[in-house]
Amino acid sequence: MHRNAIIDPVQHEQRSQRSASRGRNEKDTRVTSGTAARGSDGAAEGTGSDHWGPALAPRLAQFAAVARHEHVTRAAQELGMPQSTLSRAMARLEADLGVALFARRGRAVSLTPAGRTFLASTERALAEVERAAESVRADADPAVGKIAFGFLHTLGTETVPGLIRAFRVDHPRVRFQLVQNYGEAMIERLRAGGLDLCLTSPVPDAPDLVARRLDEQRLRLVVPGDHRLARRKRVRLAEAAGELFVTLEPGYGLRRITDALCAEAGFSPRIAFEGEEPETLRGLVAAGLGVALLPPPPVPRPGVAELTVTAPRAVREIGVAWLEGHPDTPPVAAFKRFLLSRRGQLLA
Question: What is the reported pTM?
Answer without folding.
Answer: 0.72
